[in-house]
């Protein structure tokens, strides 16, 4: 999500910038950013990627015994990816959105690193 805090707070009101516009309301900035992603096709790309990931995970069900641990790590990473719905369905204030997104992003990175170590 490309919503940036614009400079300092202006008269106690946080100013956000999205797509070259300035907003004092986080939800308005979110709506503008999401409309942009819808228009440029980014949302469709994310949805298509998630559909492909869902299909891949369905194919990996019931792995051979020697790959059970790798499957468990893959499932953890998949769950973390699915939990990143804050990108597609953002809500809250700028502060809570940023905090939750950073926490989920860190969790996903950790799980993907664990998966990479298992696969290499």
Overview of the structural elements:
The protein is mainly alpha-helical and 120 residues long. The protein contains four helices and three strands, in the order E-E-E-H-H-H-H. It has helices at 26-40, 42-59, 68-82, 94-119; strands at 4-5, 16-18, 21-23. The protein has a three-stranded antiparallel β-sheet with strand order 1-2-3, with helices on one face.
Sequence-ordered SSE layout with sheet pairings:
Blueprint: E1 4-5, E2 16-18, E3 21-23, H1 26-40, H2 42-59, H3 68-82, H4 94-119
Antiparallel strand pairs: 1-2, 2-3
Helix pairs in contact: 3-4
| Shape estimate | elongated
Q: In what order do the strands lie side by side in the largest sheet?
A: 1-2-3
Given the structure, what is the number of helices? 4
**Which class best fits the helix and strand makeup?**
mainly alpha
Q: How many strands appear in the DSSP assignment?
A: 3
Terminal-residue CA separation: 31 Å
The fraction of residues assigned to DSSP E strands is 5-15%
Largest beta-sheet characterization: 3 strands, antiparallel
Element string (H = helix, E = strand): EEEHHHH
> Which regions are unreliable across 5 or more consecutive residues at pLDDT < 50?
1-13
DSSP helix fraction: 55-70%
Mean pLDDT: 79
Radius of gyration: 18 Å
Describe the structure concisely.
The chain has helices at residues 26-40, 42-59, 68-82, 94-119, and strands at residues 4-5, 16-18, 21-23. By secondary structure, it is mainly alpha-helical.
């Amino acid at each position: 999500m490309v919503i940036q805090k614009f400079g300092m707070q202006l008269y106690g009101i946080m100013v956000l910038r999205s797509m070259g516009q300035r907003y004092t309301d986080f939800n308005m900035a979110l709506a503008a950013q999401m409309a942009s992603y819808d228009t440029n096709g980014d949302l469709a790309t994310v949805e298509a990627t998630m559909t492909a990931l869902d299909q891949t995970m369905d194919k990996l069900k019931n792995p051979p015994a020697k790959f059970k641990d790798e499957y468990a790590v893959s499932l953890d990473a998949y769950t973390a990816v699915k939990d990143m719905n804050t990108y597609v369905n953002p809500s809250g204030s700028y502060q809570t959105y940023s905090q939750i997104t950073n926490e989920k992003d860190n969790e996903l990175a950790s799980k993907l690193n664990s998966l990479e170590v298992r696969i290499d």
